[in-house]
């Protein structure tokens, strides 16, 4: 049977969107009469409500005979592994995310170090590869460093690189399919890359790129914005940048959490307050 490749970007704990998107992938592959090779570009953990469920679903693998999953490791997955295994080398913001993430494992501040679920998932994530090369596309979490051969790419760049890669316009050794950097609610396609991180926790949109016959199309699962996750990220960003959160901003956050204002209004009004 022939095969169609689907690439799914940063899931970040949104099991609801993952299940919906996998249904769309299966339906699309059935119409095409092909098997589905689903390449996940990493960042399964943090932010959303169900990291445990997401990782369990990926471990379970595809439901249709002939389909396959290729799971890559992202920078948040890497931080998760370090938190569970050594507890070393993590910035404060990563610990803040981790403390929320472990809730989906039924673990808390006092007992997470003894959680067999956390240790099992950390072992699984630590063994995931950083790249998948099909000869036409290079799948990776963040991107690659231009000018460096694929075989010489550093782990740090594959997991974390941003502007040096995103701003590069000349051809690369492969067309790179990646996540890591939220580009908006829609994926971005350029001659040298396909960017598929549509900020699932923040937008309620999880994207799959469909790579078939030299063409790129997209499937998207849509659901509600994870409002608590958005506010946690806003507070975390303020803390990282050393900004105090004044009462007026707190009121905006409360209004957003209550559903009284949407994300666009909250973002615009909070930007004016911080300015």
TrEMBL record:
Keyword set includes DNA repair: no
Gene Ontology molecular-function annotations: protein serine/threonine phosphatase activity
Primary enzyme class: hydrolase
InterPro entries: Ap4A_hydrolase, Calcineurin-like_PHP, Metallo-depent_PP-like
Protein name listed in UniProt: Serine/threonine protein phosphatase 1
Keywords: Hydrolase
Calcineurin-like phosphoesterase domain sequence ranges: 6-180
């Amino acid at each position: 049977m022939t095969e169609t490749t689907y690439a799914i970007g940063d899931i970040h704990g949104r099991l609801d969107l993952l299940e919906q998107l996998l249904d769309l992938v299966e339906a699309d592959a059935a119409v095409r009469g092909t098997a589905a090779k689903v390449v996940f570009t990493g960042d399964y953990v943090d932010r959303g409500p169900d990291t445990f469920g997401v990782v369990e679903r990926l471990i379970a693998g595809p439901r249709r005979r002939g389909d396959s999953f290729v799971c890559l490791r992202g920078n948040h997955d890497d931080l998760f592994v370090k938190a569970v295994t050594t507890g070393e080398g993590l910035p404060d913001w990563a610990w803040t995310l981790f403390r929320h993430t472990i809730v989906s494992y039924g673990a808390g501040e006092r007992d997470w170090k003894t959680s067999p679920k956390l240790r099992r998932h950390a072992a699984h994530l630590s063994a995931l590869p950083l790249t998948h090369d099909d000869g036409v596309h290079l799948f990776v979490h963040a991107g690659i460093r231009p000018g460096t051969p694929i075989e010489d790419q550093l782990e740090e760049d594959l997991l974390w690189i941003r502007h040096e890669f995103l701003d590069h316009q000349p051809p690369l050794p492969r067309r790179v399919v990646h996540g890591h950097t939220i580009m908006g609610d829609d994926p971005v396609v350029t001659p040298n890359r396909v960017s598929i991180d549509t900020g699932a926790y923040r937008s309620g949109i999880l994207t799959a790129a469909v790579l078939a016959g030299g063409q790129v199309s997209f499937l998207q699962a849509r659901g509600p914005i994870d409002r608590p996750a958005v506010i946690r990220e806003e507070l975390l960003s303020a803390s990282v940048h050393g900004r105090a959160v004044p009462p007026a901003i707190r009121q905006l956050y409360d209004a957003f959490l209550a559903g009284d204002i949407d994300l666009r209004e909250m973002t615009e009004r909070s930007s004016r307050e911080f300015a």
